[in-house]
């Protein structure tokens, strides 16, 4: 299927690895020019090289920096004059007990997982509406749908973003001008972050890491972790010209792990 977005420009956050990288790969494969951001300059530049190899016809610009800071956002937004696609993405805050979190911990979580996406949307959405095309995707978490007890910082910040998007996406001056805003809610995907977290959890509980990983897979109806490529493909479709009637939605992609009829 031709997704109809070749030649568009996308800003993809936290794109040096994991799900952000997978989204950038899928967009580049469709002929989308991308500005990719992440904090680690070396890994980001290597990802940019790989993306250029996938499709030499597109432009790939790497901007190293912390997107959760005003300086990081400004640098990314200045990399191109406009963006047709925005992929908001950031690593989640650490797990723990809410009794241990002070105000600074909450503000850091809100900055990264709620306020930064809102600031980037504010900077790009009116231009999208004026040009008659825009696709904004926020990568949140399946924990928004089914909260995880130890991830209270993430549950709170990402749920706040989800509530904000539910109202914004339905504004007539956006939805009627072919600007869609949706959230992708990933479950367990086979990324370095997932494996590091699960291995750490196994070690903390005194279990063999591979046995622990197998047990985690067995709890998912699909009996496996998702591949980043699967996630990237869904992201690219939601960004496509065919998805203009899809907005304000939370799309859960988790192999059936969250047991819900809605």
From TrEMBL:
Its EC number is 1.1.1.100. The keyword Oxidoreductase applies. Keywords: Oxidoreductase. This is 3-oxoacyl-[acyl-carrier protein] reductase. The lineage of its organism: Bacteria, Pseudomonadati, Pseudomonadota, Gammaproteobacteria, Pseudomonadales.
């Amino acid at each position: 299927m031709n997704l109809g977005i070749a030649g568009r420009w996308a800003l993809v956050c936290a794109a040096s690895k994991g799900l952000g990288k997978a989204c950038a790969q899928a967009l580049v494969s469709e002929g989308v020019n991308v500005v990719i951001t992440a904090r680690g300059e070396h890994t980001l530049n290597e990802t940019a090289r790989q993306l250029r190899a996938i499709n030499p016809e597109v432009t790939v610009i790497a901007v190293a920096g912390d997107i959760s800071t005003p300086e990081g956002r400004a640098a990314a937004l200045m990399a191109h004059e406009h963006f047709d696609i925005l992929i908001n993405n950031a690593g989640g805050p650490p797990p723990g007990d809410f009794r241990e979190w002070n105000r600074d911990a909450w503000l850091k979580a809100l900055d990264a997982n709620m306020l930064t996406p809102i600031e980037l949307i504010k900077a790009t959405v009116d231009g999208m509406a004026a040009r008659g095309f825009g696709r904004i995707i926020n990568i949140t978490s399946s924990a928004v749908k089914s909260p995880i007890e130890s991830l209270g910082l993430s549950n709170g910040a990402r749920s706040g973003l989800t509530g904000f998007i539910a109202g914004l996406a339905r504004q007539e001056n956006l939805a009627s001008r072919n600007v869609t805003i949706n959230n992708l809610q990933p479950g367990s995907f086979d990324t370095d972050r997932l494996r590091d977290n699960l291995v750490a959890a196994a070690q903390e509980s005194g279990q063999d890491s591979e046995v622990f990983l197998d047990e985690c897979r067995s709890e998912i109806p699909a009996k496996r972790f998702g591949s980043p490529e699967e996630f990237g493909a869904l992201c690219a479709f939601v960004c496509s010209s065919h998805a203009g009637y899809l907005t304000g939605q939370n799309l859960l992609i988790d192999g059936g792990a969250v047991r819900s009829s809605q």
